[in-house]
Amino acid sequence: MLMRIDILTVLPELLKSPFEASILKRAIEAGHVEVHFHNLRDYTTNAYKSVDDYQFGGGAGMVMMIEPIDKCISKLKSERSYDEIIYMTPDGERLDQGMANAMSLKENIIILCGHYKGVDQRVRDHLITKEVSIGDYVLSGGELGAAVFCDAVIRLIPGVLGNETSALTDSFQDDLLAPPIYTRPREYKGWKVPDILFGGNFPEIEKWREEQALKNTENKRPDLLK
Ligand code: ADE
């Protein structure tokens, strides 16, 4: 399956490197996903290529204008249909593993990165189908949020992770945190790996991992168990 992500931004250079390394790079090279960057300045009609302007009614901070955003989205929509047109914003729906799972099954999505104070409300009212926040803090733009969103989603596209089960054992995948994991050496500076992992008793090991996952969740994120 091929997913296509179109990212609309005023700072494409801020966004590119996460897609040029590791799992995201491999996902692109293997043809699981296409990621296209669109510089909103290329869709401006004024001589200064400005994408923002003063707020009507006064107030601090510039506002992203609707015209370049609409032009870019309209062009993309004339070429294919989109499942979701997402706006990255701190007042959007909070990204979690459930949302990432759902998004990984989409075919075509557009992501708009906000800047300055935000976008003209008419963009949100008429062009956007979903608003996403990556957490309760304010970034200086939506680009890093878009990178986080894309990373969480792309690794879940069927076929992207080599070992198909490895996403299933991630933290949050079953509303539990992951259990502890170990590798060689068996003992380091007197710090030992739990004996249970060496007996070769896989049902026992599985049971231990489930218990540890539950314990981890009770200690660190009891809210997940409610
Ligand atoms: N843009 C600014 N802050 C953001 C956040 N927390 N999530 C997504 N986009 C943002």
Could you walk me through the main structural features you see in this protein, from its secondary elements to its overall organization?
It is a single chain. By secondary structure, this protein is α/β, with parallel strands linked by helices. The protein folds into two domains: 3-154, Alpha/beta knot (3-Layer(aba) Sandwich), CATH 3.40.1280.10; 171-225, Trp Operon Repressor, Chain A (Orthogonal Bundle), CATH 1.10.1270. The protein contains seven helices and nine strands. It has a five-stranded parallel sheet, with helices on both faces. Strands 3-4 form a two-stranded antiparallel ribbon. Strand 5 (84-94), helix 4 (97-103) and strand 6 form a beta-alpha-beta unit. The protein is elongated, with a radius of gyration of 22 Å. The mean pLDDT is 95. It binds adenine (ADE). Residues 88-90, 114, 133-135, 137-139, 142, 145 line the site of adenine (ADE).
List strands and helices in order, with pairings.
Blueprint: E1 3-9, H1 12-15, H2 22-29, E2 33-39, E3 52-54, E4 62-64, H3 66-79, E5 84-94, H4 97-103, E6 108-113, H5 121-126, E7 130-133, H6 143-154, E8 187-188, E9 191-192, H7 202-220
Parallel strand pairs: 1-2, 1-6, 5-6, 5-7
Antiparallel strand pairs: 3-4, 8-9
This protein binds adenine.
Residues 88-90, 114, 133-135, 137-139, 142, 145 line the site of adenine.
Short précis:
The chain has 226 residues and is an alpha/beta fold.
Number of domains: 2
CATH homologous superfamily of the largest domain - what is it?
A: SPOUT methyltransferase, trefoil knot domain
Biggest sheet features? 5 strands, parallel
The third-level CATH topology of the largest domain is Alpha/beta knot
How far do the termini sit from each other? 35 Å
Instruction: Report the average pLDDT across residues.
Output: 95
Helix and strand element order: EHHEEEHEHEHEHEEH
The main sheet orders its strands as 2-1-6-5-7
Our Rg estimate from Cα atoms comes to 22 Å
- Helix/strand-derived category reads alpha/beta
Please name the CATH architecture of the largest domain: 3-Layer(aba) Sandwich
Kindly provide the name of the CATH class of the largest domain: Alpha Beta
